[in-house]
Amino acid sequence: ELFALACGPSQTPISVNSYVVNGVRFVVRSRDEHRTTQNNSICSPGPDGEMYYGQLEKILEFSYLSFKTVLFRVKWFDTSNKGRIQNFVIKNNITQIKANGEAFKNDQFILATQVKQCFYLEDMARRPPGWKVVEHVSHKKFLNRGVIVVEDDPDVIHVDNSSDLALSTSL
């Protein structure tokens, strides 16, 4: 794999509207905007233990000699609280985020295997509007071609040509 990385991708990246990572479907925001179900909300733990939240803007798939890798371009929400200005609140075990602000404009890309799916619900009790309630979900089992697959390895991308990583399955 190191040789394949050194050679670079075999072609320009492919931009797709949706992608399944670890059995979870992620969809770009532009495709998800007018749908009832939303699959573009993501979160990712940072090196400092803090959780970062955003919306999926673009999915890029890079093909190398022997494997593929996927990058997500994300609009990250501003989770900083500066003085009296609050963009992020955890109260009574409920996480609320102000979805109007944007952060990390120069650092928008993340590996697809580094994110988790979450959901943003409109916070109807909060004024002014623009606040969302974050709902974290746990995807432990999923259906893949008639077989229930239990996968705890965050580095495996479930596509046909992904890489030669072994998938663990059990019934």
UniProtKB/TrEMBL annotation:
Family annotation (Pfam families): DUF4216
Residues annotated as domain DUF4216: 61-134
PANTHER family attached to this UniProt entry: DUF4218 DOMAIN-CONTAINING PROTEIN-RELATED
The protein, known as: DUF4216 domain-containing protein
Naturally occurring in which organism (per UniProt): Tanacetum cinerariifolium (Dalmatian daisy)
